[in-house]
Write a structure and sequence with these properties.
The protein has 536 residues and is α+β, with helices and mostly antiparallel strands. It contains 16 helices and seven strands. The protein has a five-stranded mixed β-sheet. A two-stranded antiparallel ribbon has the order 4-5. Helix 16 links the parallel strand 6 and strand 7. The N terminus and C terminus are likely disordered.
Length: 536
C-alpha cells in the first residue's frame, strides 16, 4: 500500500496520448540514431549530422508541456539502447544526459520567448530557434560531449576538433530536420490548409530537378574529372525557388532532400570539394548545407510572414469597405426617412422643446436644459483637453423697469435682448436663461481673451438696443462676468467664478465686463449660497 500512491500519481498523468507520444518519440529517436550511425558517419568516424537530437527537439517544441518529462524519458531510453552496444554504460549515460539537457535548454528558451504553440511562422521565431538550438545548445552539448570522448581515451583527435564535430553534426541536423518535422506536424494539425494539387505538381518537378542536379553535381569520383555541367550552387537556387513557390513546408523538404544527396555522396567520397583531409570536406559540406537551410527556410518564413500580413491588411480593407457601404446605405435610408417625416418631427420637437427645454418667455434653453447641455459639453472638452469660458449676464436696474412700466414691459425687454446676444456668439456656443434678468453663455473651446471679446460685443449690443413699449423707448444696460475653465473644476465652480466676476462688475458701476483675474476673489465678495449653480 505504501508504493501504491506514487504508482497512482504516475498513472494519473500517463494517459493514452502521452504513451503514444513516448512510443513515437522513442522509436523515432532510436531509428534516427541507427540511421546516423550507419548512414551519416564517414569511414574516418566523422558524424556529418546527428538526427536524434533534431527529432527530440522537434518533439519538445510540438507537444504540450505536461508531455515533456515523459518524452524526455523516452529519449533517454532510446539513447541508452542505441549507445550501449557501442559505448561503455557510463559514457552512454553521459551522452543521454547531454542530449536531453541541450534539447531541454533550447526548447525552454524558444517556447518561453516565442510561445508554447511554437511554429516557424515568422523570422522572429526562426531567429530565436537559430540562436538557442543550433548555435547555443548544440555548442554547449559539443563541449560536454568532447569531454566524454577525452575521458574515454580518444586522443587521435584534438578536443577542439571533437567539439566542432559534435557541434556541427547536432546543429546541421537541427537546421535541416527540426523545421521540417515541426512545420509538417503543425500543417497536419491544421488539416492541410491551402493545399492544392498544382502545389504538389510544382513540388514534384522541383524535387526531380534537385535529384538530377544533385546527382550530377556531387558525383565526382576523381578531381581530374571535376568539370561539371552543374555545381552544388544550383541547389541553393532550387532551395530559394522552393521557398518562393512552396512555402516553409516545401523549403524544409527541399533542404532535407539536398542534405540526403550531400551526405550520401560525402559518405562514398564522391564529392566535388577539393580539400586535403576528409574532416575538412565534412566541415565544408556542413557549412554548405547550413547556408542552404538558413537561406531557404528563412526566406520561406519571410515570404509567409509578408503574405499573412498582406492577408490581414486585405481583411481589414474589405471590412472597412463593407462598413463604409453599410454606413452609406444607412445614411441614405436615414436621409430618406428624415425627408418623409421632417415636418412631423419638427412639430414634435417644437412641442417637446417648449415643454421641457426652452424658457417659456424668451424661447431659449431654460436653466435645467442649459446646465445639462453644458455638463455634457464640459465632459467632451475634458476628454479632448480643450478649454472653455463662461459669461454671466445680468441686466442693470431691471427692477426699475418692472416697477415703473410693469412686468409686461420687463418681459418685452427680456425677449428683445435674446437676439443681440445670439448674434454676438457663435452657433456652437450655448446660451440660456438662469432666471429673472440673468443669462448665461458657455463658450466651447474659447480662452479668456476670446470670451472677453465676446462679452464686450454682447454688452455693446445690449447698450445700443432700444425696446419700444407703448410708444415709449426703453434702454437697458448689462453687467457681465467672465471666467475661464481650468480644465478640471466642476460646472458649478466655473459658473460661481463667473458670478463673482459679475458681482465685481456691479460694484464697479455696472454696464461693464469683468473677468475673474481682474476681480477681487476675496471670500467677503462671494454671493449668497442661493446664487450657486448646482447641476440638475
Amino acid at each position: 500500500m505504501i508504493g501504491a500512491k506514487p504508482i497512482f500519481l504516475f498513472s494519473r498523468y500517463l494517459d493514452l496520448h502521452i504513451v503514444k507520444a513516448m512510443v513515437l518519440v522513442g522509436l523515432a529517436y532510436y531509428f534516427g540514431a541507427l540511421l546516423a550511425i550507419h548512414q551519416t558517419i564517414t569511414p574516418e568516424g566523422i558524424a556529418i549530422l546527428w538526427p536524434p537530437n533534431a527529432i527530440l527537439l522537434a518533439a519538445f517544441l510540438i507537444y504540450p508541456r505536461k508531455y515533456l518529462p515523459f518524452v524526455a524519458i523516452a529519449g533517454i531510453s532510446a539513447e541508452l539502447i542505441a549507445s550501449i552496444p557501442a559505448f561503455p554504460v557510463w559514457a552512454a549515460s553521459c551522452f543521454a544526459i547531454i542530449n536531453i539537457a541541450s534539447v531541454s535548454l533550447a526548447a525552454f528558451f524558444i517556447r518561453r520567448i516565442c510561445g508554447q504553440n511554437f511554429n516557424f511562422k515568422n523570422l522572429k521565431n526562426g531567429a530565436y530557434f537559430l540562436f538557442f538550438a543550433p548555435f547555443l545548445a548544440a555548442s554547449l552539448a559539443g563541449l560536454s560531449g568532447a569531454t566524454v570522448y577525452v575521458l574515454m581515451g580518444r586522443t587521435d583527435t584534438s578536443y577542439i576538433s571533437l567539439w566542432q564535430l559534435w557541434w556541427f553534426g547536432d546543429a546541421l541536423a537541427m537546421l535541416v530536420l527540426t523545421p521540417l518535422i515541426v512545420v509538417l506536424w503543425r500543417w497536419l494539425q491544421a488539416g492541410l490548409p491551402h493545399f492544392k494539387l498544382h502545389y504538389l505538381l510544382e513540388a514534384l518537378i522541383l524535387w526531380t530537378a534537385v535529384i538530377i542536379i544533385g546527382y550530377q553535381s556531387f558525383s565526382v569520383e576523381t578531381y581530374e574529372k571535376s568539370f561539371l555541367f552543374f555545381t552544388p550552387i544550383w541547389l541553393v537556387l532550387l532551395g530559394v525557388l522552393a521557398a518562393i513557390r512552396l512555402g516553409v513546408v516545401g523549403a524544409s523538404a527541399t533542404v532535407a532532400l539536398i542534405t540526403v544527396f550531400a551526405v550520401e555522396h560525402l559518405m562514398r567520397g564522391t564529392h566535388p570539394i577539393i580539400v586535403n583531409t576528409p574532416q575538412n570536406a565534412v566541415w565544408l559540406t556542413q557549412e554548405y548545407l547550413a547556408i542552404i537551410a538558413v537561406v531557404s527556410i528563412g526566406l520561406a518564413m519571410l515570404i509567409q510572414e509578408i503574405s499573412e500580413q498582406r492577408d490581414v491588411l486585405k481583411q481589414h480593407e474589405n471590412a472597412l469597405k463593407a462598413q463604409n457601404q453599410f454606413l452609406e446605405e444607412r445614411v441614405s435610408e436615414r436621409t430618406l426617412a428624415l425627408k418623409e417625416v421632417n415636418q412631423a418631427l419638427q412639430k414634435a420637437n417644437e412641442r417637446l422643446a417648449k415643454s421641457a427645454a426652452t424658457d417659456e418667455l424668451t424661447g431659449i434653453p431654460n436653466r435645467r436644459h442649459f446646465l445639462s447641455e453644458v455638463q455634457r459639453e464640459l465632459q467632451r472638452l475634458r476628454l479632448d483637453g480643450q478649454t472653455a469660458s463662461a459669461i454671466m449676464i445680468d441686466l442693470d436696474h431691471f427692477k426699475q423697469v418692472n416697477d415703473n412700466l410693469g412686468h409686461e414691459a420687463g418681459d418685452l425687454v427680456l425677449c428683445n435682448i435674446v437676439e443681440p446676444i445670439s448674434n454676438a456668439i457663435r452657433p456652437r456656443d450655448l446660451f440660456g436663461r438662469m432666471g429673472g434678468e440673468e443669462f448665461l453663455v458657455f463658450l466651447s473651446g474659447a480662452d479668456q481673451e476670446l470670451a472677453n471679446s465676446v462679452a464686450e460685443r454682447i454688452r455693446a449690443e445690449i447698450e445700443s438696443l432700444e425696446v419700444l413699449y407703448r410708444n415709449q423707448k426703453i434702454n437697458v444696460t448689462a453687467s457681465l462676468g467672465v471666467a475661464e475653465w481650468d480644465g478640471r473644476s466642476h460646472l458649478d465652480e466655473l459658473f460661481h467664478q463667473a458670478d463673482q466676476a459679475l458681482y465685481q462688475a456691479k460694484n464697479r458701476g455696472r454696464n461693464r465686463v469683468v473677468n475673474l483675474t481682474e476681480s477681487d476673489s476675496d471670500s467677503n465678495h462671494r454671493l449668497p449660497p442661493e446664487n450657486h449653480f448646482e447641476l440638475p
